[in-house]
Amino acid sequence: VFTLNVRRPSGSPDTFAVTGVPDPDQVTYPGAVDFLIEDTATAYVWADVVLARAGATTLAEIAAIGRPAVLIPLPTAANDHQTKNAEALAAAGAVVVVPQSECSAERLGVVLRELMGDEARRETMARASRSLGRPGAARDVADALVGLGSAKGAL
């Protein structure tokens, strides 16, 4: 048995009116709802399991912190790239992918119960996630650009 605590960014004040998703202020569950999570690193560290879409930035953050995740790729993203992103992390053992077409409260409940009941699996997934992370990627790209500029005499 585990207690589910949720920390969820709301997107924007208009999200609920536009999407028809229940306003989290009207839904009862333990946790916090933030308009915007400014310190994502702390939010990811707080999480035992991350439940998210599969955009590149989100996956880079999850891997940099090294968290297991359940991903629900947005199928309408350009060229279905979120599914491809998610499948790459799933192949490495870092995430569980639940296609949006198969996503329901019941299915997520099963997946989350399995993960929360298996600490060894979460730890294995976290190691796999961390192995894919590049926490210094921005610095590496900046260094490469400076080196390229210096080599061409631009700097």
Protein described:
Helix content is 48%, strand content 11%. The protein is mostly helical. The strands form 2 sheets. The protein has a 3-stranded parallel sheet with strand order 3-4-5. The protein has a two-stranded parallel sheet with strand order 1-2.
* Rg over C-alpha atoms, rounded to the nearest angstrom: 18 Å
Strand arrangement within the widest β-sheet reads: 3-4-5
Molecular shape:
elongated
Outline the biggest β-sheet: 3 strands, parallel
**Helix-residue proportion:** 40-55%
Q: What percentage of the residues does DSSP assign to strands (E)?
A: 5-15%
Question: If helices are DSSP runs of H or I spanning 4 or more residues, what is the number of helices?
Answer: 7
| Terminus-to-terminus distance | 59 Å
Structural class: mainly alpha
Name some characteristics of this structure:
mainly alpha; three-stranded parallel sheet; 7 helices
Tell me briefly what this model is.
The chain has 155 residues and is mainly α. It contains seven helices and five strands.
Architecture blueprint of SSEs:
Blueprint: E1 6-9, H1 15-19, E2 31-34, H2 40-46, E3 50-52, H3 56-65, E4 69-71, H4 81-91, E5 95-97, H5 105-116, H6 119-132, H7 137-151
Parallel strand pairs: 1-2, 3-4, 4-5
